[in-house]
Amino acid sequence: MEEGLRVTLIGTKLVKEGEEFIFLGASDNCNDCKLKNTCTNLEVNRRYRIEKVRDGMRHDCPIHEDGVCVVEVREAPITAAIEAAYAFKNSKIVFNPIDCEETNCELFESCQPAGLRAGDRCTILEVIGNAPAECKKRRELKLVCIYKEGEKE
After folding, report:
1. Beta bridge partners of 11
2. In this structure, are residues 75 and 148 in contact, taking their beta carbons and an 8 Å threshold?
3. At 110, is the secondary structure helix, strand, or coil?
4. Could you tell me how many helices (H) and strands (E) the chain has, helices first?
5. What sign has the CA pseudo-torsion 13, 17, 23, 25?
6. Can you give the pTM of this predicted structure?
7. Which of 61, 75, 76, 85 is least crowded, fewest Cβ atoms below 10 Å from its Cβ?
8. How many angstroms separate the CA atoms of 82 and 139, rounded?
9. Strand-pair category, 92-94 with 78-83
10. Angle (nearest 5°) at CA 48 between 42 and 54
11. What is the mean pLDDT of residues 138-148?
12. Which tens digit of pLDDT belongs to each residue from 117-136?
């Protein structure tokens, strides 16, 4: 199997190559399931992309009414707002979300992107450009597409 890919199970209604999701963890209903280890082998609060759907075989599941399918996933690149001074294509950074409490700001979700944590080592794959709105704290921000290190694109 290709480096960076993980095998897991996804609800059949959600299975589509290229689809992205954030793994939120196991439900209490998973505790007695024989497939629990395969279903829950992802890191909680990380964004994943379905790269391949395997064989189409369906497995029964107490959570997903139509069962689950075997898929190969990898961590997905994430769009984030970072300080412009650090926004260089192919550079390696330690991700630190913008320190801001302005939850009603248009940029808040880009400054605090789901799927990344403070201290993650990342590579900037692309500098997308200036942030689409002005920072309320008057910071100069750039939107970048970043990938958590340890996985290959």
Report:
1. 68
2. yes
3. helix
4. 2, 8
5. positive
6. 0.86
7. 85
8. 9
9. unpaired
10. 80
11. 96
12. 999 999 999 999 999 999 98
Residue 21 corresponds to which tokens in the numbers above? Answer: 């999701």
Going by C-alpha positions, the residue among 79, 73, 80, 78 that lies closest to residue 19 is 73
How far apart, in whole angstroms, are the C-alpha atoms of residue 17 and residue 150?
Answer: 22
Q: Which residue has the tokens 């008057």?
A: 138
Q: Are 142 and 128 within 8 A, CB to CB?
A: yes
CA distance 131 to 96: 17
**How would you classify the pairing of strands 46-59 and 6-11?**
unpaired
Give the DSSP per-residue string, 31-51. Answer: TT-TTHHHHT-SPTTEEEEEE
Cβ count within 10 A of residue 69? 23
Three-class SS string for 49-90? EEEEEEEEEEECCCCCCCCEEEEEEEECCEEEEEEHHHCCCC
Q: Which residue ranges make up each domain of the chain?
A: 6-75, 78-148
